[in-house]
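W.,

You were right to be curious about this one. When I first looked at the sequence I had no strong expectations either way, so I just let the prediction run and decided to look at it fresh. Below is the sequence, 672 residues in total, followed by the output.
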Amino acid sequence: MIPYILYSALILSACLVFYKLLLQKETFFYLNRYVLLSCMLLAFIVPLIPVPQQLSFRNAPAETAVVLPENQIIKNSTIQQKTESIQETPVGPTKQLINVEVVLQWIIYLYWFGVLVFGANFLMQAVILIKRAYSGSVIQDGKFRIVEITGDKAPCSFANNIFINPEKYEWETYNQILLHEKIHIEQKHTIDLLLAEIVLIFQWFNPFAWQWRKALEINLEFLTDDQMLQQDTVERESYQFSLLKVAAPQFPLSLTTNYNQSLLKKRIIMMNSKKSNVNTTWKYFFLLPLMVLFACLFNQPAAQSQTLAASTEKSAKKAAKKPNLKNGIRTEGNWLATIKGNEVYLQLKSDEKDNSSSTFQLSEFKDLQRDKQGTFTLTREAGTMTFTGKFEGDKGAGTYKFTADKNYQAAMLKEGIKVTNDDDLMVFFLVNVKQSYVQMVKQKGYKNPDKDQLIPLVALDVNEAYIASIKQAIPDIDLDNLVPFKSLGIDRAYIEDIRKSGYKDLSPGNIIALKSQGIDGKFIADVRSAAKGNNSGDDTSNSDDDVIAFKALNVDKAFINSLKEVGYDNLSNSDLIAMKSLNVTADYIKGFQKAGFATIKPGDMIALKSQNITPALVQQYKDLGFSNLDMGDVVGAQATGATPTFIKSMKEKGHDFKNLEKYIELKAVLHN
């Protein structure tokens, strides 16, 4: 939880710096509003999004992909047992100046204490506002509720309520205040402020979050001022003079819009500033690569996440046959068992907690008798487990004790595997790690296998034949990669299938990524065959990284061929990905071709779709007299609101331009 909160704080801080440096002085107030809100939400969403493994700067540990069959042992439990055994070993007194775990625990307590305090403050403000809104004198003005207050409190608005003392202001100023606050309400600025307050509850420690709320509040006032000045009944000088009268040093509750003095100077300066040129909108497009960079730097690789999800689903389906180890495995405790056919489902318990559940073959147990109190044993190379108890029919219970085989411990040490205590030996016992298996692994070229590597390898039945087969396809494959290979069902045939498709970078990481996405050689061959000639002059290996994107977006042979049929037979991979992601279909393109627009470039077609521009809309622009219509200008006009209706109205007012770009500039000036 804490790493997630810190990651969110880092993204929010970086976005604030980006906004302050590039966007704060721009007069695109509508756009700035949505940028501020989007970044605020993305700061909490981006850390949760997995990225393709090839794009991630983080390595996906192989053990996270393990799907253990019978006798499953989770690596973390082994580590925990090691920790427990170390804690139980008597050592000499040591002096530790700082206990890191205690410090971290107190930091967590402090964080949640802050969350509770700021959450309570938020609720208190909401209660005060609701009480104030429904306990005083109210004038209903359509959907607006004008709540009359007393004293020197500054006017403000919350939801559809306007709080104002009518006795303080002359008629013109009073009307301008009401109009100002109605704009706040119409545009639902309360939602922005509520979201900012919720962010502050969880980011109270982050100074950038407080600055973020202030930047959002300032932009809302800029936006409202801009809307006020567009009213025919409001004069710039009169409105600014009214602000001077209304501005008050008292800060209302932070959930409301307000007229505090600290913002007044900035608002007046912005009202008199030169409007931003539409060509400066390029700055906003840098937000996307900024978010992608954060995701690639810190997020979990997608292949790891998907493999883990797959393993979780598979484990759930076979829960009755899979071991479940928690809090370590004790060498003594209680057991519960159920016999089903030739299998024994066994639960080992200690300290009133389930530590392990495994399935064994009935034939492995010696002297097991039913309906009679007694003792029976289970012997493997690592030792012997003695069970005392009674089976009544197919269900039994009792106590167990594990006795390690010291000769086995010495034999494993001879192989370079140090099994330090009985708990470790019991893990090896349950998984059934044999000395011959270690020798086989070493014979296959892995000279120094680690005991934590051996556990998932044995549990997944990564046998000699499987290792030999994989090494024929990838001779230098690491031992750790064999675990995700086996859990994902990657075999030599699959690797050769990918190789024959023309995919060049057959590193284990890429093979894992491809398999986790369900990509096979046929898919790769089909899309490359369909896209043949699209990337002329490029090395085909450059398209390897696009294969996963193609699969994720379902850019298949049929989609590529459908675009070829309408004349788009020289598309780059990036064009194909963009078209698919925006749903630029053959039917969409045919619509433009039937309307007489047959030579639209791929980039322009993508831009048209991004703005949901139809052939009918393009025809409307053409009917206005723009004979040599540039599709880039159509996109720019739609993005800035320079619609055919707007252009007609400007022509009626005497603004008759032959260039569509002039109307885009005019709309930008009038709008901002």
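Here's what jumped out at me. The two ends are 42 Å apart (CA to CA). And, maybe more interesting for your project: The CA atoms of residues 506 and 586 lie 34 Å apart.

Coffee later to discuss?

I.
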